[in-house]
C-alpha cells in the first residue's frame, strides 16, 4: 500500500542504462519529442514493459520513483509537478487528492483496456473514489502478518498463527519478542486493523474507540523491537525479525529473498481471520499534467493483460485484470497469499478517509505508542 513501502527487487540500473528512464528534472524534452512523465513507487514496475511501450507508441517514458505517500503528496500539493501519471494508494492519498481537486477525471474512451478491470475490486475502490472517475487499480494487496513460523513456534508453541492475537495479546508478543517484532511506521495502515481486531468500525473516529486502540498498542509496546518506515521486507528476509505487521507483497517478496539466500529463513504471510485491510495502488493523472493524452495511452497500455501480467510476474503483487491470470506464473496465481480465494474476501475491508481532526488524534495516539507512554 501501500503508504511507505520498500517494495520489490528490480534491476533499475539496467533500465536506466537503456536511456528510457530518467528524472524529469535531468533534461528538457526536445520540442518534437513525445513523452510521458511517470511517478511510481520504488521497484514497482517491469522495465521491459516501459521499453515495450516506447517501442510500440514512440512515447518516451521519463520515470521517477518515491518511497512514501508523504513525498508524493508534497510534490502534488505544490502544483506544476510535471508528472503525467502517478500511483497513489487509495487511502489516504488518492482520496485526499480527489477532494483537493488535484486529479483529472479519466477519459475512459481513451483507456479501452479499463473495461477489463475486475468490477468487484473497482467497486471496492469506490470507498475512495465514489464514481471510479479519477483512477484505475494498478496493483493491490492486504495488510497482515509476516511470520517466521519455525522461530515463533519454538518460543510460543500455543500461540495462534491465524489471528491478530499473535501480535496484539501481550502474552504472545512477550513470548515472541526475543526473535523480533517489527511494525510498519504508519498509523494510517495500523490503526484501522486494530479497530477491526477490537470489533469496532475500522473508520471510527470516536475518542473512546481510539483510547481502546491506544491501550491495545501500549500493551505490546515493550515487546516491539522496531518500526519500519519502508515496510519490513529486509527484516523478515534476513531473519532479523520473526513477526511483522506489514504489507502482503512485502512478506511474499521477503519469502522469495529468503529462499534465494538459502540461510534457513522461511517466511509466510497471514491475513488474520478477524479481518485484513485491502488496499489499492491506483494509476491517476494530475489535473495539470502536461501530456494528458500520453498519460491516457500509458495507462491503457499498462492495463493490457499481457503487460500487467509481466508486471505482476516481476513484482509479485496481484493486479485487477482477470484476463492476465493465464499469463502469470502459476506459482504466483496458485498462492492464496498473492491471489486470495473468493471466500477470503469476506474478511477483507477497505477504509475511508477520516476528518482532519480525527487524523490528528490518530497521529497523537501513534506518537504516544512509539514513545511508549
Search tags:
globular; 3-stranded parallel sheet; D-Maltodextrin-Binding Protein, domain 2; 2 domains; alpha/beta; 373 residues; 7-stranded mixed sheet
Question: What does this protein structure show overall?
Answer:
With 373 residues, the chain is α/β, with parallel strands linked by helices. It is 40% helix and 14% strand. The protein has two domains: 12-140 and 279-338, Periplasmic binding protein-like II (D-Maltodextrin-Binding Protein, domain 2, 3-Layer(aba) Sandwich); 142-277 and 350-371, Periplasmic binding protein-like II (D-Maltodextrin-Binding Protein, domain 2, 3-Layer(aba) Sandwich), CATH 3.40.190. The protein has helices at 12-17, 47-57, 69-77, 90-99, 119-125, 149-155, 165-168, 170-176, 187-197, 207-220, 233-238, 248-261, 292-302, 305-315, 330-333, 356-371; strands at residues 35-41, 60-66, 85-86, 136-147, 181-184, 226-228, 243-247, 268-270, 276-283, 348-349. The strands form two sheets. Strands 4, 5, 6, 7, 8, 9 and 10 form a seven-stranded mixed β-sheet that branches. Strands 2-1-3 form a three-stranded parallel β-sheet. Strand 1 (35-41), helix 2 and strand 2 form a beta-alpha-beta unit. The chain starts with 11 loop residues before the first helix and ends with a helix. Residues 1-19 and 21-30 have low confidence and may be disordered.
Amino acid at each position: 500500500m501501500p503508504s511507505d513501502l520498500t517494495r520489490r527487487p528490480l534491476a533499475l540500473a539496467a533500465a536506466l542504462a537503456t536511456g528510457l528512464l530518467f528524472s524529469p528534472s535531468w533534461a528538457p524534452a526536445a520540442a518534437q519529442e513525445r513523452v510521458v512523465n511517470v511517478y511510481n513507487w520504488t521497484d514497482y514496475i517491469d522495465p521491459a514493459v516501459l521499453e515495450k511501450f516506447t517501442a510500440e507508441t514512440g512515447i518516451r517514458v521519463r520515470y521517477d520513483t518515491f518511497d512514501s505517500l508523504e513525498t508524493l503528496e508534497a510534490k502534488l500539493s505544490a502544483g506544476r509537478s510535471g508528472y503525467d501519471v502517478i500511483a497513489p494508494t487509495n487511502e489516504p492519498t488518492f482520496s485526499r487528492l480527489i477532494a483537493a481537486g488535484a486529479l483529472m477525471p479519466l477519459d475512459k474512451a481513451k483507456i479501452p483496456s479499463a473495461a477489463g478491470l475486475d468490477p468487484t475490486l473497482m467497486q471496492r475502490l469506490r470507498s475512495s473514489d465514489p464514481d471510479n472517475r479519477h483512477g484505475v487499480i494498478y496493483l493491490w494487496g492486504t495488510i497482515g502478518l509476516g511470520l517466521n513460523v519455525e522461530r515463533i513456534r519454538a518460543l510460543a508453541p500455543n500461540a495462534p498463527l491465524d489471528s491478530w492475537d499473535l501480535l496484539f495479546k501481550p502474552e504472545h508478543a512477550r513470548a515472541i519478542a526475543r526473535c523480533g517484532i517489527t511494525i510498519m511506521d504508519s498509523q494510517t495502515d495500523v490503526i484501522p486493523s486494530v479497530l477491526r481486531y477490537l470489533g469496532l468500525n475500522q473508520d471510527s473516529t470516536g475518542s473512546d474507540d481510539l483510547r481502546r486502540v491506544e491501550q491495545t498498542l501500549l500493551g505490546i509496546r515493550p515487546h516491539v523491537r522496531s518500526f519500519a518506515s519502508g515496510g519490513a521486507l529486509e527484516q523478515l528476509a534476513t531473519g532479523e525479525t520473526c513477526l511483522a505487521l506489514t504489507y502482503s507483497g512485502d512478506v511474499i517478496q521477503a519469502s522469495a529473498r529468503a529462499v534465494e539466500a538459502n540461510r534457513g529463513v522461511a517466511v509466510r504471510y497471514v491475513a488474520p481471520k478477524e479481518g485484513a485491510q485491502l488496499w489499492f495502488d491506483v494509476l491517476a493523472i494530475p489535473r495539470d499534467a502536461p501530456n494528458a493524452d500520453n498519460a491516457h495511452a500509458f495507462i491503457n497500455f499498462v492495463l493490457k493483460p499481457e503487460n500487467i501480467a509481466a508486471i505482476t510476474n516481476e513484482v509479485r503483487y496481484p493486479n485487477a485484470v482477470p484476463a492476465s491470470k493465464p499469463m502469470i506464473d502459476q506459482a504466483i496465481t496458485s498462492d492464496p497469499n498473492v491471489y486470495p480465494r473468493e471466500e477470503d474476501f469476506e474478511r477483507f475491508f477497505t477504509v475511508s478517509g477520516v476528518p482532519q481532526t480525527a487524523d490528528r488524534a490518530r497521529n497523537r495516539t501513534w506518537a504516544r505508542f512509539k514513545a511508549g507512554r
